[in-house]
Amino acid sequence: ETTYTYGIGFVNQYRRFAQAFLALPAVEGRVLPQKNENVRVRLYADGAEARLGIVNKAFTPQIVTVSVPEKATAVVDLVTGEETPCAGGTLTLSLRTCSLNSYRVK
Description:
This protein has one helix spanning about 10-20; strands at about 30, 40-45, 50-55, 60-65, 75, 85, 90-95, 100-105.
């Protein structure tokens, strides 16, 4: 046994990551270009619905402005249900350290 097992600590982070990961569709996403090299955004378009997967790979929390589809008016966090408005193809978010976030585009 090693000290680096999933059974020790960080349970809330594992749970949140799993919920965000499982909320994304099982289709290939399209990477949306971003100015921040620590943030990766993928758009998952599946018919009439679109979802975003946003990863912060930085070791510090980040407040970021990301590019989203122009017609988006808001996004809904698929883990918490929180709605965040967006306009003009930009969305400003506060991202946790080393996190995956999943959103439904409205």
